[in-house]
Design a protein that fits this description.
701 residues, 5 domains, alpha+beta, 3-stranded antiparallel β-sheet, 19 strands, 5-stranded antiparallel β-sheet, flat, Alpha-Beta Plaits
Length: 701
Amino acid sequence: MKDFLLEIGAEELPSNYIGQVLLQLRSSVEEALNNSRLSFNRVNVFGTPNRLVIYVEGLPLRQGLQREKIIGPAKEIAFDKDGEPTEACLGFLKSKGAKLKDIAVETTSRGEYVFIERAKQSSATKSVLIDLLPAVIASVRFPKLMRWHAKDVRFARPIRWLLALFDSEVVNFRLGSLAASNLTRVPRYSNPSMGIIKITSINDYFNKLEKYKVLLNQEIRKRRVAAILKDLASDLGAANNFNEELIETVTYLVESPFGFVGKFKKEYLHLPVKVLEGSMAKNQRIFLLKDKKGKALAYFVAIINGRHKNIDGIRSTYEAILDAKLKDSIFFLKEDLKIKLEKRVEALKGVVFQAKLGTMYDRVMRIQKLSLDIVNSFEFPDRRSVQEKTQRAAVLSKADLVTQMVKEFPDLQGIIGKEYAKRDGEDKEVYDAIYEHYLPRAVADPLPSTYTSSILAIADKIDSIVGFFAIGSIPTGSEDPYGIRRASLGLLKILLEKRYPISLSDLIEWTFGRYGNTIACNRHLVKSQIIAFQKERLKNILLDRKFRDDIITAVLESGLNRLDDLYKKLSDLSSIAKSKHFLEAAKVIERTSNILKIEKTLKEGIGRVRVEHLKEPLEKELWEIYEKNEGKIERAVTEGDYIGATKIYAEAFFKPLHVFFEKVLVNVNDDALRRNRLALLKAIHDIYVERIADLSKVKIQ
């Protein structure tokens, strides 16, 4: 067994590309090796600004053995009526280097064919790698590509060198004009000319990089960045509280992290903390230092590539650039505060939300009305006050989009709106809602904290979801340019966590109403698409909360409407999933589901139960049991007692249904009788499945 290493050396790669590219490379290499009959122990991938590295452990010296089946002519063509091989058969054997004794006959969907089976040729691993590596590199997809070679080789940045080793042997493949070798390069901070270094083996490669202070493993590099930040913050008594996304970005900007502290004028501390952080992150990828209470200190930490001799000069450059950027931010702040936020709302008429969905002003008006629909849909404390605050927050929610600060730092929308509304003297719940209605933006984000913020967030998210689905802009694959997946996850998490008794169906209908004639679509179809999309997102959320996959599926099969109710169903059913009543109820649903498959063969459907068509005593008895228990089950469901409803259902139907199936034939020749018996079973099936869960989806454990 040997190891293999490929290093793709390139001009500096965009930091936001590298993480995803490494995932692609691992997947592509694993697939290529498997397809090439090359076993392996592990595929490791590493990335820095200038190099992407694939390190495969435990490759064999040759491909694994495999037999291949080669289909020849049809049997009737291969042999004559006396069973002798024809010219067609002999020609097939000759072309494959086989003999008559090697031939066999196989029956296929097209008839009987002759075939031969033989061992597939096994090639040396090094030879296979030479063939597959160009395709692996070409398979990598970037958001933007550059053509850097006459043969139309494309990559995110020009590739400058390729190192490929099978232990100590060079794997001599070519990519465009580049030939792989055993040469790599070390970064400029170690060698001003980015010197070329000869590598004698894979172990030598790792040792040489370590010698030149290159931290190849991105996870180790990330920990080093975090440790530098922590140590430098501690030296100044600052909090170890830094933006994780920026740490990730910086990890892919450097190969050998080195940090230093810089400072800026205290007058810039008048800027909001988020503005300071936003400017530093966007323009210089540096970190603001804050005290334990989150208040900004007049210091920053910069992470650069390697330890430089002229660190004071580098620090001065960083400080000068930061001074210019913060001076701009002070100017934006002063100019923005000359106009109150509410005076900016009218300017949203000039900001397009989406060409088919109107302006941002139109969106704000819809969100305001939707918020009112939501507030009026259920009872909660101090509703009148929340209604007023939600309406006010809705009007101001997007006004910061026309401020100079947000135009400069788009990621600060909502944050700037909150800050300016606070300075304008707005109520605390109002200015908090202007920021919190964007939550949650990411997985780790908190949810909106108040009724005002939550209702505004629900209105904002459902407006986007319905609007973009209505015009056909539905997320596909990895594409989601309008953030509909994020909006959906946020909406579902709020409804799930807050346990608001709000119908998803009603939300969609209200939103259609608020769009009015702006969108023309098949509303029934769009609504079903939205609910199906939400089901997929919701299932993942519920799986993360350790609910069983099959029970989630069973509950979702009964429809997705109120998430507070759905969560109660899941919790109740999960708590009794091993109980006698649950298992008996599941058996009733399973048996009725199976027999009701006949319904699909009936042109006119089953219809309702007709008492006059109940002939057998057992079916009459079953109908009486249904009528006696229907109301009980309905009341339990209305009260949210799904454990009780399951118990009633199981006790009512498990034994009688078993006897019914033993004694009564359902699929009789008499059409009216058959339909009526199916209708009876459908009524028993639907009273539970349509209200609680389709337990036929549950795997009995």
